Amino acid sequence: MKTMEQIPKVLIIDDEEVVLDSCTQILAAGNYNVTTAPNGETGLDLAEKFSPDIAFIDLKMPGISGTEVLERINELDPTIVTVVITGYATINSAVEAMKLGAYDFLPKPFTPDEFRLITRRGLERRKLMLETIALRKEKEMLRDNFAAIVAHELKAPVNAIKQNLYVLDMELAGTLNESQKNRLDRMMARTDDLLKLIHSWLRVLSVDIDKVRETFKSLAVPDLIATATELVEPHAVRKDIEVVTSFQEPLSQIEGDEMSLIEALVNIIDNAIKYSYPSSKVTIHTKETGEGIEISVSDTGVGISKEELPRVLGGFYWSESTQADEPSHGLGLTISQRIIEAHDGKIAVDSEPGKGTTFVISLPALKRLE
Amino acid sequence: MTQQKRLLIIDDDPDFVEGIKAILDAAQYNVDVAYNPKSGLQALQTGNYDLLLLDIMMGRGAEGVMIARKMRKDPKLREMPVLIITGIREQIAFLFPGGPMHPRFVEVDELVEKPVEPRLLLEKVSTLLATVEAKKAK
To answer: B128: left (phi > 0), else alpha (psi -120 to 50), else beta?
Structure first.
């Protein structure tokens, strides 16, 4: 980050030696670091190497014109304050120069006071510009990290509560009656739900599509599904739901990020289990179409009504018809959708109330090696 | 005869600390606590601890990482096992909860997530202590 805590740097570009000398003299009394250039070429070179806070540019110079020097310095670093030096006859070109981004102009001849004043004002302007940039950067950084900061602040108290509930559970083991024990278990389960919710929020806000792309590699869909099914198994077993997988052979590979694709699949399969009736089946079938790879995840559960259907993939959704009192937050589907879209894929949903729901994930296939 | 092991917790959340100290106390460990990175480092240098339980997100950022870095540079502290207890959930932990994670801040370390189940906490602590014992015996 640029700051002006050091001595301000002044660059003067003029072909008249007397102007360079007198300007250097005028500023010698103040706390400035002054460098001069006798022509535009040297001036541009110094603008880059010396990185001045303010640059005075004579408009009428042999070689590269003052206007071009001005333009090139502005391109190099728009925060360098530029002031054009001009004779009376070239006031018009001074106006032109200001249109090109000069901050001010200094008509020749000028008094030492005029020159000092314009230098001070220019440097003040430079300081404000740097401060504005610094503030804007800070604001952007805050916005980027906002999710992480909020999530940490939210999690800390919940973590402390949960940790102490663990201790209570341990210390009171054997002394609580059935309903007290139940109450303690519910407290632990509810704090868990809250933690999961915070994590999901954080994921929704932080799925960085460009980052996901960085780790793309060739993947076999059946492997991804196998891992995802393994991860949801505890949930499936609890509800006595059988997860049946099948796939067409041979099947092209896809290109993607393994971790996030598994996460997307886990969310969708978990969702199917959640909305299933106990002791039923969730079916996952993978096939290849002309368009790519299609993974369908079907349950025979409660289903989604026609009115609710369009909203399922639109944002934060959860159904009113959730089975039992399972924790449900519709963030999982949103995360999945963002992950699949980052892979140039699509998710579609079809459902019939009372019959069940099918999610279809389509992903582009890699060309198969013959 | 086994000597009582001395543990140090560095964590800026007193309520959370209470929740892990009670578990370690009950398991007959001798537990000290530092509630900020500065006094934590002091305690590490003066006390003779067998294991450190370290929080990562303290104060205005990941000040726990700073402590781990300083430990790595210190020839004596470098040998101390560290159990990192953190609220930051990395993607890997999101997908494979309970999977082993070795942050490799120091020679012997491991990471658990907040909140941590009593059984898991005690298991990690005793494993780390045993690893160091085995190294010393060599």
So the answer is: alpha
Cα of B119 to nearest chain A Cα, Å: 10
Note the Cα A258 to chain centre separation in Å: 21
For chain B, the straight-line distance linking the first and the last C-alpha, in angstroms and rounded, comes to 20
Helix (H) or strand (E) holding A274: helix A258-274
CB B92 within 8 A of CB A259: yes
Hey, are the CB atoms on A167 and B118 less than 8 Å from each other? yes
In a mutagenesis test of the A interface, which of B16, B33, B85 is the best target, namely the one with the most A β-carbons within 10 Å? B16
Q: Alpha-carbon distance A334 to A338, whole Å? A: 6
- Nearest CB among A160, A231, A266 relative to B13 is that of A160
Which H or E run includes A349?
A: strand A346-352
Q: Is A153 left (phi over 0), alpha (psi -120 to 50) or beta?
A: alpha
- B83, containing H or E segment: strand B82-86
Residue in chain B lying closest to A155 (CA): B87
Instruction: Please give chain A's pLDDT, 370 residues, in tens.
Output: 444 457 999 999 999 999 999 999 999 988 899 999 999 999 999 999 999 999 999 988 889 988 899 999 999 999 999 999 987 656 777 788 888 889 998 888 889 999 999 999 999 999 999 999 988 888 777 766 666 677 777 888 999 999 999 999 999 989 999 999 999 999 998 898 888 778 777 766 666 666 677 778 899 999 999 999 988 888 899 899 999 999 998 899 999 988 889 889 998 999 899 889 999 999 999 999 988 999 999 999 888 888 877 777 765 444 444 444 444 446 778 888 888 988 999 999 998 888 899 999 999 998 765 4
Torsion of CA A178, A183, A186, A187, to 10 degrees: -140
The token pair at B76 is 């004596």
Q: Which DSSP letter does residue B108 get?
A: S
Q: Which residue of A has its CA nearest to B16?
A: A160
Within a 10 A sphere around the Cβ of B30, how many other Cβ atoms? 14
Global pTM value: 0.51
**C-beta separation of A255 from A217 below 8 A:** yes
Q: Which residues of B touch A159 (CB under 8 A)?
A: 13, 16, 87, 114-115
Interface with chain B: mutation pick from A155, A163, A270, highest number of B CBs within 10 Å: A163
Task: Please name the member of A152, A156, A164 whose beta carbon is closest to the beta carbon of B18.
Answer: A164
Contact between chains at B26 and A155 (C-beta distance less than 8 A): no
B114 contacts A231? CB cut-off 8 A:
no
